[in-house]
Amino acid sequence: MIVLENDNLYAEINLIGAELVVLQQKGKENVLWNPDLAFWNRTAPNLFPIVGRLVNDRYQYKDCTYELKQHGFARDLLFTIRAKTKSHVELQLTDNEETRKKYPFSFELVVMYELFEDQIEISYRTSNNDDKKMPYSVGGHPGFALNLPLDNYRLNFHSSFEADRWLIENTFYTGQKQPMKIDSLLNLKNKYFTNDAIVFKQPKINQVTLEKINKERIVTVGSSSWDAIGLWTKQNAPFFCIEPWWGWADSCDSTGKIEEKSGLHWLEPGQEEMVSYFIQVH
């Protein structure tokens, strides 16, 4: 377990999955969800090399079929420490014989955490070390603890906007969209999550705050570059997830061919890309 701290924040990161498991203002409670097998066994997994699920948990690439489970394999693998200071750490994952059975590319994924006053910034730097183009998606999945039923909370998007909710059935996109008009605030209700997450692709907002109806703020999650944002909980579960994504799951009618998959980023040989998001603790 890696510990980071500054004058305001304390954080713990598990080397398995490079997963943030504790984030709190000093002297206050951890804002992250503590896994409970009755609801969800994760806290803030990192998603790579896919976000979401593939139809039949498999894909085709150059006439070969590969099996890859939901959200990819990075969340279950041991990362190594690349660099560390008191308030910053870089954790590295590279391909090996086992990853290449599921994902036939030579890569480096570096997950970076850095504390700034009351925020933690999470960055993903993905490098293609192969001699061929490499497809990938990456994302975060932080879950925040709720100490009251869901309808005591709301999301504050800090501006009014209209967006399409991409509808999901059995973890895949149906191709249908539901227009939503949000006047800055969205009061949370279990019925919104009966069929999985609320997903906005190419969102028109760059931050969202989880707060109580009484206006007590808990956390703000934001990014200037996310491809999509997922908002998710399970029925009557004491957690809520705000998920920044660079990619998304398959549609029900997906062909399974990786070259035709929507939402992927492609890196040329030797190319790297970095994306990031932040969590502000109130």
Number of strands: 22
Low-confidence stretches: none
Order of helices and strands: EEEEEEEEHEEEEEEEEEEEEEE
Largest sheet properties: 9 strands, antiparallel
- The CATH architecture designation of the largest domain is Distorted Sandwich
Discrete helix count? 1
Q: Provide the CATH top-level class of the largest domain.
A: Mainly Beta
Main sheet: strand order: 7-8-9-10-22-18-17-14-15
Strand content: over 45%
Record keyword descriptors for this entry.
282 residues; mainly beta; Beta-galactosidase, Chain A, domain 5; 2 domains; nine-stranded antiparallel β-sheet; six-stranded antiparallel β-sheet; 1 helix; 2% helix; globular
Topology of helices and strands:
Blueprint: E1 2-5, E2 9-14, E3 19-25, E4 46-47, E5 58-61, E6 64-67, E7 80-84, E8 88-94, H1 97-102, E9 107-116, E10 119-128, E11 134-136, E12 138-140, E13 143-145, E14 153-169, E15 172-187, E16 198-201, E17 207-212, E18 217-222, E19 228-232, E20 239-246, E21 265-267, E22 272-281
Describe the structure.
With 282 residues, this protein is mainly beta. It folds into 2 domains: 2-143 and 261-281, Beta-galactosidase, Chain A, domain 5, CATH 2.70.98; 146-246, no CATH class. It is 2% helix and 51% strand. The chain has one helix spanning 97-102; strands spanning 2-5, 9-14, 19-25, 46-47, 58-61, 64-67, 80-84, 88-94, 107-116, 119-128, 134-136, 138-140, 143-145, 153-169, 172-187, 198-201, 207-212, 217-222, 228-232, 239-246, 265-267, 272-281. The strands form 5 sheets. The protein has a 9-stranded antiparallel beta sheet with strand order 7-8-9-10-22-18-17-14-15, with no helix packed on it. The protein is globular. The protein starts with a strand and ends with a strand. The mean pLDDT is 97.
